[in-house]
What we know:
The chain contains 7 helices and no strands. By secondary structure, the protein is an all-alpha fold.
Amino acid sequence: METTPLTNDIFDEKQSLKIIKTTIENARKRLMDDGILLLFWGLSFAISNLWRYYESVVLTAWWMRNFMRIFNIGFGIAVIVLTLYFIFFKKSKVTTFTAISTRYVWIGVILAHNIVVIITKTILQEVNFAMLQPLQMVLIGFALFATGGIYRYYLLLGSGVIMWIAAALAANYDLNVQFLIRGIAEILCFIVPGFLMMISRKNSINV
């Protein structure tokens, strides 16, 4: 009878660990659902930045420039609508702590980015606007890294590190080359993880 409290403590500890592991696994599965969002946001960013680089080095017809401008705006609006649909309609009504944390991370990054733009354009007298791209990449890298840490998803942690490395590299080049570096980084950090997350989700459904 004297060993009962010890047995209960071990049982409670095992149960607690099991609950924690189950919670993390469920959160990770929910993150897999966001693979399509990561993929489409990456496509929107990468197409826009790679086109800017292409336009800067290759003489393009006016109709092509106008078409790409309209396409980028339309595609960006479509991605925003898709994101709102996932958040307010497709997602479960039960919002987890991890989902709330991730949401605030990305909202904070968006606000920080806009504050940086406002400061550089309205307050500072001498501004090197070519540094805005690396600063944006640093913020995006932080959001990816934090999201990966919250969900214990190491692919996104690695994506954040890659984006930081790309930001440091882009800071050494002019604006046009920065568009190229950022576009490639967005393929690696958004499109590739998003695609792998979609495959993982599909495999888990088929099992």
